[in-house]
Every structure is written in C-alpha cells, then in structure tokens.
Amino acid sequence: MTDVEQLEQIAREVAVCTACPLSRTRHKTVPGTGDPHATIMFIGEAPGYHEDQQGKPFVGPAGQFLDELLASIGLKRENVFIANVVKCRPPNNRDPQPDEIAACAHFLQRQIQAIQPKVIVTLGRYSMAKFFPGETISRIHGRARRQNGVIYFPLYHPAAALHQPALRRTIEEDFKKLPELIASLEDAPPEEPPAEKATQLQLF
Ligand code: URA
Predict the structure, then answer these.
(1) Helices (H) and strands (E) in the chain — how many of each?
(2) Is-above-0.90 flag for pTM?
(3) Cβ atoms within 10 A of the Cβ of 200, count?
(4) How do residues 97-127 score in pLDDT, each as one tens digit?
C-alpha cells in the first residue's frame, strides 16, 4: 500500500470505529487532513463542535487561529498534515479519557508511520504527553527536541490563547521558531545514531 492508500485506509477504519464510548455520541469522525507527504505534522487534542459537524480537524475558532499562525510563517494547512490524538469529539468538549486515548492511539501511530513527518508539533498537553511523558507544557513549550531524525516541538493549544489572551503572544513567539527548525533539518546529518545508543522517546 502507498502512503496515501494507508492514510485512506486509516480514515475508513476510523469512520466505523466503535472501540470507545465516543463512537456513540459523535456525528462525524475526524481522522485528519492535509499533505500525505508533509514535512510538518500538527497533532491536536480532540475534535470540538465544528470538527464533529464537518469531519475535519481545526475548523472552529482554534482552527482559525492555527490558520493565522501558519500564515505568519508562510504556510497553509494544505502544506502540513493536521490530526488529533482522539478522532471523535468528547461530549461537551470534555477532556479525553485515558481509555479513549488508548483506544485511538494506533490510528495516530499509523498516520505518523505513513506520513513520516520530519517535524511533529504537539498542540496542547494531551498531544505533548504522547511524546514528552511526565513533562509539563508550561516548562517545555517552544523547546524542540530532536530524536532519531525527527524534531518534536511542543506548543500550547491554540484554544488556550482564545481563553487566555496572555498566552497568545507566547504561542505566536513559539511558532516563529518553526522556520528555523525546518531549516535546521537540512544541516542535520542524515544518518541515525546506532539503535543501541539511541535513547528512544517513549512514543505510545
Ligand atoms: N481542538 C483540537 O485539539 N482539535 C481540533 O481538531 C479542534 C480543536
């Protein structure tokens, strides 16, 4: 299967998934959208009202802000891939529960494998927790970590800026570091460190 076919297959599986209780209250599943060969992948938390209605990630107010942030560095959403930790909306936008996150984990894992992004931008703490277990977002936001050829870049969730205007500037400032990170990929040595010496990030 090609990468595109794999992503289509994942979306088909998400559409009929009943592995957690969110399948009973969702309207549409939100597998993720964007360039199947994107260098940058953004990973949010879970669909909200608008995403649940449209079946696309980040199409509500937080998504408008994400579009603005992307535009500030000359990108459009078609240039990146956008997905969420959880593919169905939690009722009343409550936090996703550990069992829901666990049930959905393989979809995200397979999306990452198909896309093979060079930069993974985590939006919010649930997404951050996948790649930076035990960390707190207030401590590590805007600080990139390179692991086995992939840059992991944790950011506050764009919705946080909508509710806490003081955070807006922080996210905007953090976002401005992305072009430099992307440019640094070209300078980085292509070879991976030997497997036994590589400290594995605990991914899932
Ligand atoms: N918030 C998210 O984390 N994801 C979306 O898709 C929309 C809002």
Answers:
(1) 10, 6
(2) yes
(3) 8
(4) 999 999 999 999 999 999 999 999 999 999 9
One-letter amino acid identity for 129?
A
- For residue 15, which phi and psi values (nearest 5 degrees)? -60, -25
In angstroms, rounded to a whole number, what is the distance separating the alpha carbons of residues 94 and 113? Answer: 28
For the chain, the structural domain boundaries read 3-188
pLDDT tens-digit map of 20-53? 999 999 999 999 999 999 999 999 999 999 999 9
Identify which of 14, 27, 28, 58 to mutate to test ligand 1's pocket (most ligand atoms within 8 A of the CB). 58
Q: Which CATH code of 3.40.470.10, 3.40.50.300, 2.70.70.10, 3.30.70.20 fits the domain covering 3-188?
A: 3.40.470.10
Q: How far is the CA of 51 from the centre of ligand 1 (A)?
A: 7
- pLDDT single digits (tens) 80-101: 999 999 999 999 999 999 999 9
Residues at CB less than 6 angstroms from ligand 1: 44-48, 51, 57-58, 60, 62-63, 84, 159
